[in-house]
Amino acid sequence: MMAEKPVKFVIFLSLILSLVAFWDHQFTSYLKEFVVLIHEICHATAALFSGGVVKGIALHGNEGGETIAVPASFRGSFILVVSAGYIGSSLVGAFLLRLGFQGRHARQTMILFGLFLISVSVLYSKLGDLAYFTGIFWGVGILVTGMLGETISILSLVFLGTSISLYSLYDLSDFAERLTETDAGILAFWMAGLGPEDLQNQEVPTVVVILGYMIATLWSLLSIGIIFMSLRSSLSHEESHEIPEMEESFERFPGDLSPEAKLWLEKRGVDPESGIVLPPNLFQDFPPKDNSP
């Protein structure tokens, strides 16, 4: 089980400060590409679960990516698939962070997560593309880490969960800078009844801007809420102390006991009939029986 609340908070805060301090470092760029891949995998997963088809996942090397998918025929499937990128990333980050802080099934989670990344990269990204190398590199690394032991798996889950959650929140800044190029803008164009060719127009219709900001606000609130609730629950999680069941012995004493022997055993917390040894304080409120003739 992970450490108590103050230690959990120190670990989380240290990771946040470290990531912010090295936000523009080369290593962090690899981490950002990994989180972008998670974003795209969430789109693909939503498409598959809603009955659609995924044709490919790609990363562009500028913290951008795309998922080429054909959603299912029902109208809500497109909304689900487009919304899954930001919301799904927040859910993944919150889930990994919670598991890491709770310290439950850390090794199994790391191994399954690594295998999942490798499988998705092989199936839906082109050999030699950035998405392929990113998925294989991180997938193998996570898989191997899960095989090294429980402690390192727990720390890795906390690191991955913190990184994905932090970048998911940082990614929301795209809504303010380039709304029409984000998933919120794409969904706004679709809800306004406009096609892909309209995305190229320099002048964005007012209805698209309004819808885009409404969608972006909703997604932002959901993402922040998911991460906040998970973090709050993780930091306040305490190990439950279960009282072990008392071992009972049902061995009976051989032969018949005299009244004096029974009285002597009862005074010492032993049931003379069954031989069960009970806690001494259990007899404080129950004086021994008078078995004198």
UniProtKB/TrEMBL annotation:
Residues 272-293 are annotated as: Disordered. Keywords: Membrane, Transmembrane, Transmembrane helix. The chain crosses the membrane at residues 6-23, 78-97, 109-124, 130-149, 207-231. InterPro entries: Peptidase_M50B-like (IPR049500). Coiled coil: none annotated. Pfam families: Peptidase_M50B. PANTHER family: OS02G0221600 PROTEIN (PTHR33979), PEPTIDASE M50B-LIKE-DOMAIN-CONTAINING PROTEIN (PTHR33979:SF2). This is M50 family peptidase. It comes from Leptospira brenneri.
